[in-house]
Amino acid sequence: MTCLACKSNDKDLYCSIDSYNLFRCLECSLISVETMPSDQELERFYNDYFKTKQYTSKLQSKIRRAKKRVKSISKYTKGKKFLDVGCNVGFAVEAARQLGLNANGIDVDNTAIDMANDLFPGCTFTADSVETVAEQGKKFDVIYCSEVIEHLSSLDSFVESLLKILKPKGVLLVTTPDMGHFSLTKDINKLITSKWIRPPEHLFYFTKQSIKNLFMIKGFSRIKFMISLKPTIKMLGFKD
């Protein structure tokens, strides 16, 4: 199994949970599931998972938090075309609209998109994958992708598509859990029992180094990290 982030073949077994073996790259510390679940397995998992989630609760506070984040990244570009990749019910897209951006959101979950269209009719939402958007030739100045990449079995094509749809001089924000954060325990058993490591919901576990490697290999010209006191990577990607 070649590491997607640094292309090394040096790895060791990090842990096993249920039927999933997770391996850690010895070069960049990316942790990933050895055998990716099928699309059918993931569909069954998420059908059950979303039944227990209340994504519309505390909507206004979620919009306020997203507004701060969108404002902090939109200063890096003069362009106004915004896309939230994996937008769910659309609170970050609405935050972008309130900041005067041309606000768009995509998600592969049709139910989430239907809810987003009902909640925020001033924004544009479509049930598309980022790969589909890239094939359509669409481009954006600001791309927002929060807590998405750790879920993906098709990580390679996803990152390649993000690069394709980002305009030159645009900015991409990616957030994901930080396996290398100073506040996070190194005790694997504690990480498992606390559900920090939880396949098949999360298939990849990044450090700053591994996520930087991945995006630089795919063609991003510069990577910058925002400060985070919580175990979350906040990465900005730029394209010349």
TrEMBL record:
GO molecular function: methyltransferase activity
Keywords per UniProt: Methyltransferase, Transferase
SUPFAM superfamilies assigned to the protein according to its UniProt record, in alphabetical order: S-adenosyl-L-methionine-dependent methyltransferases
Coiled-coil zones: none
Pfam family, one: Methyltransf_23
CDD domains: AdoMet_MTases
A single GO BP: methylation
The protein, known as: Methyltransferase domain-containing protein
Organism: SAR86 cluster bacterium
